[in-house]
Amino acid sequence: MLNRQSQSDVVLEPDPQYAVVLLNEEQLGQFMRRPGIRQVNRGYAVPDVHTRYLRLKRQTAAAAAVLLVLGVGSFLYFMAPQPAMASMFVWKELPAAPTLDTGTSFSVTVETTDSSDSAGYAAGRVRSLGFPAFTRVSPGRRQMHQAMAGPYASLDEAERAQRRLARSGFGGARIFVDESLRNAPRNDVAATVADGNPNILLIGAPDRVSLVCVLPLEPRQVRERRSENVLDLDVGPISTHVSEQHWSAPEGIHLVDRVSIEGVKASEIGEFLRAHVTVPEFARTNVRTEGRRVYIDLTWPMIAADAVTPRSPGAAPPRTTAAETRATSAAREATAAVVQDLQAAGDYSEQLRGVLDRIAAVKPFLTSAAQSGSPDVLAALDETLATLESSVKGMRVPTDAVDQHQMLLSSIRTARKAASPSFSGDRVGQAREAFVLYDAAVNAGGAITHSGK
Length: 453
Hints:
By secondary structure, this protein is α+β, with helices and mostly antiparallel strands. 39% of the residues lie in helices and 21% in strands. The strands form 3 sheets. Strands 1-6-7-14-13 form a 5-stranded mixed sheet, with no helix packed on it. The chain has a 5-stranded antiparallel sheet with strand order 8-9-12-11-10, with no helix packed on it. A hairpin with a 3-residue loop joins strand 8 (221-226) and strand 9 (230-238). Helix 8 (348-372) runs antiparallel to helix 9 and helix 8 (348-372) packs antiparallel against helix 11.
């Protein structure tokens, strides 16, 4: 039996207990004072094989597309024709071309007078006989006004014109020779001689130049199209094949820049010659044919148009019919009425309504004059249309009427071409084209409205 003293000496030990602490790698590293573990090349550590295959496929497709673009671009650069490349790259300059051949021109001096009106009237009479005519002021201290026919590229043409004019009452007609372009400077580009191509020649005359195309046979068709600074000409049919050829104008010539020709299969009747003539936008152009030669006359805008000027008091007036007299008077009255209406009108709609009324009034006279070809009526109509064009160009156009306004302006310019006494093409067809443009402008809507076309 244990006594009380012995029981007090017994010490009981408690059961052992443990604490559990959960640490991640970063905490364990900090606890153990080791640097943290970081992943290297995370973007390429893709354990999934299929994902890695898709990524490689996309990279390969992108590289193939880049190579394809570079290959196509290189092929176009080295294999595409020059005109295509010039249109694709606006900075690419056109290749140098040989200088146009130049020569002497021959004109016929019909009349020399102190009065510009008398010279203009004489030129109008010459033009009514079917000759190309213009006026010039002679050099020298005493300046004289001369009426001239031409220019022509050969002396034979000028002499034939002189004989015909003498038979028509111009007995004092004399040959005038102009050698201003005969020795024009040329560049160093060698000219390529193409067999069968027509001869292209540039000649000078007072205040103008003429581009001459000499064909093997007289052409049956001559069609022209004029944009702002390019005149396209289709001539034919021709008996020979035309190879592509290019020229540039001599230094100092500003009325023409470059000329190119090519052969085109226009229809079943044969091959046509197509000429592209680059001219300034301000240059006036007129196309005429003289036998085997096709002339493109180029003049400055400040030179008076080849139209009949008012008669001198002492000159005998030509015979005119009663209808032509009425048409001339009506056209001149329309000119005065246009000026009065536009001065009285205020806003754009009122001004435009007056112009449309006058164009509608001029339409029947233009059709009649295009069919008859009366020089007096055509000159009066051209004066009226010139006033209309100047008025339309000076208007302040609203934003919603810009397109219709430009179409109306184009119709007036086309009508002026039909009324020009120097126009040698299809005058009736040109007038019809002007009417189509006018109707399209009227029916286009917007600010251009007209009740009585």
